[in-house]
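Escalation from tier 1.

The customer reports that the assembly of two entities below gives different structure tokens on two consecutive runs. Tier 1 could not reproduce it. I'm attaching the input and our single run for tier 2 to review.
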Amino acid sequence: MESTTDSALRSLLQTTASSKQNPHNTLQPLQPAVTPIVEPKDVQHEVKLQNVVATVSVACELNLQDINFRTRNSEYTPSRFHGVVMRMREPRCTALIFRTGKIICTGARNEAEASLGARKFARILQKLGYPVKFVDFKLQNIVATVDLRFPIRLENLNQMHGQFSSYEPELFPGLIYRMVNPRMVLLIFVNGKIVFTGAKARKDIMECLDKIYPTLLSFRKN
Amino acid sequence: MSGLKCRNCGSTDIEEDNARGDAVCTNCGSVLEDSLIVSEIQFEEVGRGAAAIGQFVSAESTGGATNYGYGKFQVGSGTESREVTIKKAKKEITHLCQQLQLTQHYIDTALNFFKMALARHLTRGRKSTHIYAACVYITCRTEGTSHLLIDISDVQQICSYELGRTYLKLSNALCINIPSVDPCLYIMRFANKLQFGAKTHEVSMTALRIVQRMKKDSLHSGRRPTGLCGAALLIAARMHEFSRTILDIVGIVKIHESTVRKRLIEFADTPSSALTLDEFMSVDLEAEQDPPAFKAARKKDRDRIKDIGEHELSKLQMEIDTHLEKDLKRIQKNTMKRLTGGIADFAGDKDFEDVESANFIEESNLEAIKECLADTPEVVEQRKIVLSGLKPDIESMCRPAPSELLEAEKAKENDVIEDLDLEGLDDEEINNYILTHEEAEYKNNMWNALNAEYLKEMREKEARLAKEREEGKPEKKKRRPRRKAIGPSTSAGEAIEKMLQEKKISSKINYDILRTLTEGSIAGASSVTATEITAAEAMDIKNVPIIVENGPIKQKNSRSKPAYTIGGPAAKVPKLEVGLPVAAEPATPTKKEPVVVENDDLDEFVDDADADADGEAEPEPEREYSSLKDMLNNGEEDDYYGYDEDNY
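Tier 1 run:
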């Protein structure tokens, strides 16, 4: 805004006082300096959900072998895992279906997909003739990533936040930060990328990011 | 010792014989104690030479039932199981440390870590080898020796990641703040193995310099220290005209060739790699580089933007530019109008007006610029205030998150929809997932063929179980779920109740009767315990009259109220502890609060009441609780309890 009015004034001067040599003529309109500091509000838009895990119960006993035979998209290997693994194209997600009627739906990219996917799986079971209900739908875990676009000094962060973090480059290249409230785990990498896990809702992640952001900013390199 | 009284006749005339190790009442002749513990050593002549009299008691033994009575004949037996555990740990840790060429000092430290872990029950459910190794590794890290996790896992023959997990768990639970690994530590060690002969020191110094440079350019963060050392040593070796291949290095630093290569390439990307050898040894570049991973990410970003297509972007840019132009023109017109106003009509006065307005504008511009110049340093400073090394904020941690409050509200509403909501479900799509009858048959056959072995196994298992049931064998016990932590309780009685439900402490106590004791009231309970706590109360007697002097009883109540969580929320206290030790600064305000409150209560009274309040308010509730617990723990040993305490 400043620059525009400034240039407006300049052009005004040029048109009006062309005879007089104006020192302002040589001035270039200044762009406001680009601050590398990204506000947390902006960062929040960058958060990408990667995986959503939800559980639901259909509240009836299921015959897993029967389900496995009659569906196209399922695997059942009881010697390895006591549940039917059922996959779906749209939304792209996978369900683990157990004898007790509990379903774990993983791999969805957001909450809506998780809900839709879970309902679709329940619908498939309903079509197979089970008295299906839809009880206790709950998001269990949300995994999200964000790129903060500034390098972070992991050693210093680990030193100051020792009781919450562990950084062992011999074991894992990232710093593992266990936040107490909201109860989540963050993987913080040196290139400024962060992975959030253990969130039960999207706002947990936002809250967590809001909390950790000033800290990370204070440990940025340069 | 002189305060000792005979239990039988009450006489204080007791003779102790250190050589025999007993205490005898000279009045009635009863032996009050044998196997006395003495700090001096005496020797006696025996057939084979001299031998120390008596038996050594280790500093770690807690006394108790150690060797009581038969001690002299059964050496080594009758020790507590904990002592056995520690003894074993000591042996193993010593063995491990010797393999790693660590001195006695390290052994002791590691053993102390083990004892801490043992006291907190961190050893449960973990393999002892892992615990020992983790303790030794913690010692190595805190003392800064050049041992790697992989060395220890190598010696112990265990998975290094498994060991790493144990180590992290231990160090976290014991609140040991371990400094990050410094790759420089390992240079010397690896240099010694590379057969540089007389030049070892020089080479390692060069390597050290390279590592320092790498650290400055943040090549080290998130990377194994060994890779860094390997790359640095390779460069250093070649700088000193030793022919070492990457493979030579790889064999010693135990890291893959490609990793070392990658480190070398990353180092080549930094400006210091462009220096000549002499320059590198003498010049320190000021600039620090961003970590390679960060650079790579930025490069990726740039590539992606390029991929989007420059023409698209330029189109967009053109559009934006035209819009901006328009806006600019409009603004210009507006300002023109505003400034020149209707005056523009008067052609004759135009020149004069123009000069005037130009002057005015110039002046105002200058002023504005001056203001701007004056402002900028402040603005910059404000930006700078933000931060260097923020510490964890405990207050914000303890505050319940808004999401939690919302959830609690939601839980109250609690309306349940149980039926499946069919909205947005495409039946046709779902039908596609379901197989026809023939297809199902086909899949069934295939599955049966694939899982034939498993099905057979299951049938056998079922048959076996049926048979066992017929024979009347008891079914296998299911593992009991782990006990939950005892929650907070409001009174001592309740606490006992909970503890009794939790576990039966001794088979020799009639719990029903005990319960009747506590059921009546807490007052009843305290009267029972009164006999036990007399000794403890005797110490308190000094304090009591002073308090009475200072204020009425009412005040005492008010004082004991803030008393730091009396029946304590047991679960909460350790949490606070976890938070406190490191972040001393943010912790102090939260800690101060209760103290301030207390001062408000007290400031009418004499100053020394403060000291009393601190001394009195805390021990009282604790004493009551601990004595009750003691009663339950060793009801029959009460006499010994008092006696032992007097002795020490």
